[in-house]
């Protein structure tokens, strides 16, 4: 009885009870809490209580939608910068690396949840907790890393929203100008037309309610792919007419485009955290592997045959190579714009998740009005920035090189290394060397892609055409 009494007292140790009752990661986590001697190891999956859990199929749909966006239409242009052989190999390698970095991030999150006695952690919380429960010298950096990643995610996905607005506006403008050539629609006006619909769809607050939108978007994007592939395979030129391996100086442009297109790192943790069966996210086949195999296959097909069909004349979005006078081609452009519109809310969920999480415990009776106001303000800012800098190609390159190479490749590798630094780097420290290679690839993409994008922006300013350059980009 005495032993039984002691075990009851341990199970109700106050710091553990506080940690498991609060879903948000707190900066006041006690390092000593991981030394509490539990009779049964803490299982975070058993303590998760999600109000609107996603099914396994719903989670796959969300991951597909987060990775299949405007970036896939830029894959033929990416192949132009690599060549058919190098592009095919590069797409497979980039897809493997992106999948692996997501895997190690989720794996680290699940393991650090055990240390922190937490049912789930967000992306930023995982990075902060990895430092907090890592080497002693780095433990004080936990709060700083968490805050840094939080604001980096907000900035990154706000930039993605700007790309989406430019893409939607550009597609609308292309079709409208065919029917009203005497009164062409400005790109600024086209972007402004998206404001009200985007504000309305971004008022949806639960991922579960976005599943139907993602499902519809996946169906429509399939239709767009069928139409696009029809044009790609019509009178296909011989493969030998295309370059097999492009100049190595062009490879960084290929890498930054692929990283932007494939990375959905900010959506991964919200999707995993809201799964009804999170243990099915990793593993084989698993949610992650299933979604990424589909994504990599589609990217390779569109990129390869798009470059074979159009060669060096391929444009930033392969749909822009489709004949303007064909009704079917116009339908494809409008459908893809609608797909990006439906995807907007899913990408918007990432910055709002951080804002909502940081407001927990601070809610007021005007919380609903505040939510509506914040969501409207973020969408308005994204539309305004898109209208001011409507160069789609440069924005995609810059966002992919600077933000996604850092958050999607560099950060997961660093976090995994830090968390496993004390005697968990594997035989011959293979984890350290593997993550070091990923960091080098990330830095190459960062500096080379950012340099090219900034040079292009400077040229735009020099020619005084920042506000009107999108027409040149599209044509």
UniProtKB/TrEMBL annotation:
Residues 54-454 form the Amino acid transporter transmembrane domain. The keyword Acyltransferase does not apply. InterPro entries: AA_transpt_TM. It is a multi-pass membrane protein. It is found in: Membrane. Pfam families: Aa_trans (PF01490). GO terms for molecular function: L-amino acid transmembrane transporter activity. The chain crosses the membrane at residues 148-172, 184-202, 209-233, 253-271, 283-307, 327-349, 369-389, 395-419, 431-450. Keywords: Membrane, Transmembrane, Transmembrane helix. The keyword Transmembrane helix applies. GO terms for cellular component: vacuolar membrane. This is Amino acid transporter transmembrane domain-containing protein. It comes from Chrysodeixis includens.
């Amino acid at each position: 009885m005495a032993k039984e009494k002691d075990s009851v007292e341990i199970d109700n140790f106050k710091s553990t009870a506080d940690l498991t009752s609060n879903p948000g990661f707190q900066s006041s986590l006690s390092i000593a809490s991981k030394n509490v001697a539990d009779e049964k190891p803490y299982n975070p999956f058993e303590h998760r209580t999600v109000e609107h859990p996603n099914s396994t199929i719903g989670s796959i749909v969300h991951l597909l939608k987060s990775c299949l966006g405007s970036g896939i239409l830029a894959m033929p242009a990416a192949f132009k910068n690599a060549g058919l052989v190098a592009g095919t190999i590069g797409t497979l390698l980039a897809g493997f690396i992106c999948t692996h970095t997501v895997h190690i991030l989720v794996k680290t999150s699940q393991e650090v949840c055990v240390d922190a006695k937490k049912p789930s952690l967000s992306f930023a919380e995982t990075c902060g907790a990895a430092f907090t429960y890592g080497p002693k010298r780095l433990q004080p950096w936990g709060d700083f890393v968490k805050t840094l990643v939080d604001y980096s995610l907000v900035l990154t996905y706000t930039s993605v929203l700007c790309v989406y607005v430019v893409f939607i506006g550009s597609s609308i403008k292309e079709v409208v100008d065919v029917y009203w050539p005497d009164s062409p629609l400005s790109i600024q006006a086209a972007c402004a037309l998206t404001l009200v619909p985007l504000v309305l769809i971004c008022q949806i607050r639960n991922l579960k309610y976005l599943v139907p939108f993602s499902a519809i978007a996946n169906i429509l994007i399939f239709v767009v792919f069928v139409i696009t592939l029809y044009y790609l395979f019509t009178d296909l030129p011989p493969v030998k007419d295309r370059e097999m391996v492009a100049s190595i100086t062009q490879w960084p442009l290929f890498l930054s485009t692929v990283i932007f297109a494939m990375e959905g790192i900010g959506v991964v943790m919200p999707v995993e955290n809201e799964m009804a069966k999170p243990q099915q996210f990793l593993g084989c086949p698993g949610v992650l592997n299933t979604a990424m195999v589909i994504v990599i296959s589609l990217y390779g097909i569109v990129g390869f045959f798009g470059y074979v069909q159009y060669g060096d004349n391929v444009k930033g979005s392969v749909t822009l190579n489709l004949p303007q006078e064909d009704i079917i081609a116009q339908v494809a452009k409008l459908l893809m714009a609608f797909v990006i519109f439906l995807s907007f809310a899913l990408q918007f969920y990432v910055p709002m998740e951080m804002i909502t999480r940081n407001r927990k415990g601070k809610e007021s009776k005007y919380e609903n009005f505040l939510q509506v106001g914040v969501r409207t303000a973020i969408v308005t800012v994204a539309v305004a920035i898109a209208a001011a800098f409507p160069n789609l190609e440069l924005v995609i390159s810059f966002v992919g090189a600077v933000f996604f190479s850092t958050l999607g490749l560099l950060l997961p590798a660093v976090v995994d290394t830090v968390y496993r630094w004390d005697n968990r780097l594997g035989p011959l420290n293979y984890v350290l060397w593997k993550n070091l290679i990923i960091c080098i690839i990330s830095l190459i993409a960062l500096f080379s892609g950012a340099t090219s994008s900034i040079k292009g922006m400077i040229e735009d300013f020099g020619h005084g055409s920042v506000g009107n350059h999108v027409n040149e980009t599209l044509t």
